[in-house]
Specification:
The chain is built from 16 helices and 14 strands. With 492 residues, it is of the alpha+beta class. The protein has a seven-stranded mixed sheet. The longest helix has 23 residues. It starts with 49 loop residues before the first helix and ends in an 11-residue tail after the last helix. It comes from Iphiclides podalirius (scarce swallowtail). InterPro entries: TLDc_dom (IPR006571). This is TLDc domain-containing protein.
Amino acid sequence: MGNHTSHEKSSGDQGGSGSSTPRGSQRGTRSGSSGELPEKPEAPQSTSMVPIEKLAKLLVQRSQKEDGVNGVTENCFTKYLFPMYPDLARHFFRYLLKVGKCKNKHIPLATFRQQCERIMAMLDDAVIIEAYVRMFSSDTDEGAVTPDGLRSLLYISYKLSMDHYPEGPQTCLMINKTLSAVINGCFNKKDSHSVGFVVRWLEEHCHRLIFPVHRYCVHMLATRHRDIEAHVESNGSGAGLELATPVLERGAWHANSGALLPVSAAWLLAATAPPLYSRPARPPPAPHTGGGSASAMWLARLVCAVPSHWAPLYASREHGLGANRFLHHTLAYRGPTLVVVASDEVTAVIASPQEWRETHQYWGGPECALIQLYPTFALIELGPKMLYLNTAIRGYPKGLRAGTDPRKPLLSINEDFDSFTFQGVPYTIRAIEVWGCGDQASRENQLEVKKWQVREAERQRQVKLSAADWIEHPDRYLLELAGRPQYNNSAS
């Protein structure tokens, strides 16, 4: 989602949740962060909202026929728009009632069309997040969000992502643990927060977590009228919609239930780490710049996304726990990686935007990140030059480190790779996994490098030295120092 400035919050959805940028955020100020409302919202072009016009009329017709009401009823809204997700339909419908200031329990045609057009025209990230957080806020306390309300919103985002998973619908046994980690991070044992606080926390820690819900809603609002017009029985699954959830390539070792990165954690990390790691495809350019192109541009931008494939590179329980094992399976992978480090108490993720390398200096681009995954979810740090790996250079600290302050790294793995310190607390390593987030060519190139290294080592092992070569060989000098000065120099 981009940061566009042409669309502001309409008068039907006022609130101060966008009044400040997230603490520590490096994404810059968004157009919805000023808290100022324009005197008159920018009117969408009439040609761009034909789908909404058709949908509104069809839903009113169905409501008149089935419920005897001249307007859109919750029953028909759920039945024909979001039949697979009744909880989403209930919150969405009541949100439209509230912002449309409807006096009855149905929505008049003009109000329905106006509010749906406003939602479809949202482009600013902060405005999108605020709309859905407010949608799931407490009915009894205006402007307050409870843990249960946020959990419901996050679960719908997860369910949508799993239902539209590229390899077919998925389930994850760890989803409750994953959602609880996010709730713990946001609420910190509090009973409720303001909408503004929750919006800022989501922006800072898991910026894109709500966008699958918005993409799905926009998709359904724009296309659902076709099925209703054609009297086609459809379950409202949003067929053909891609939500950019990374595909975890399941190797033999990942089939084990003890994997540190279940699919629900991948869904969460893809919404937290910079887009480099999930690589959503750019939408196709608009074919022309005429009056109707605006709709095509923002619909393509909201809906079009191609998921990446995360390839398993290293798992300590399968390949062994140690620095040499980590280096063997991780080096030479020329792409972004996620290093998952787990103890019995905490799980952290180091996001590296480029190939790992050994050096005595800190390195890494601006997409470097350190994330706490469990038991409390949080984006700990994001920025350049925060990665360090050294196992061979003398005179410098050994091990793997992450953090922008070299004197006090936030995460430090010792040189034996059997313990680590995270935010000043020592832990024993239970397991480490490394996932490659680059394209397929990155993995193939790494495997080719490893094959070449094996062939070269075998060739070097089988080389026979001539007598002349042996006289100048450094190993001969070392053996002489060890007390073996006499050799048969004529031997080949």
